[in-house]
Amino acid sequence: EVECNRITFNAVISACEKGGEWERATELLSVMVQNSVEMDTITFNATISACEKGAEWEQALQLFSTMAQRTLESNTINFNAAISACEKGGEWEKALQLLSMMAQSNVESS
Fold first, then answer.
1. DSSP structure string for 80-106
2. Less Cβ crowding at N or C end of the chain, within 10 Å?
3. Quick one: CA torsion of 82, 85, 90, 94, rounded to 10 degrees?
């Protein structure tokens, strides 16, 4: 029997991200919440990246905000994924806001 823990969920969410299945990635995040499975920065990085690949900028920003509310540390990966999602959605103002936030939080851009 396989235990469904944070590591298992992160692996499956990453697979969804690589397969362009942003909806499934966000569904898995919901399942984690329902089952009180601890989420970490990797969980959000993979889910935000999945939304970015699906050009779902609003969902990516919502996840980015949720991550901050959970006091998880922002990093280059999730900032870049959120910025890229905004770029794909033609939301250049929001991308600039994120870049400014990134500079204020002393996260290195790449």
1. HHHHHHHHHTT-HHHHHHHHHHHHHTT
2. N
3. -10
55: left (phi over 0), alpha (psi -120 to 50) or beta: left
Q: How far apart are CA 76 and CA 110, in angstroms?
A: 7
What's the confidence (pLDDT) of residue 68?
A: 85
The residue type found at 58 is: E
The phi, psi pair for 38, rounded to 5°, reads -60, 135
Calpha distance 52→83 (Å, rounded): 8
Taking only the tens place, the pLDDT of each residue in 86-95 is: 999 999 999 9
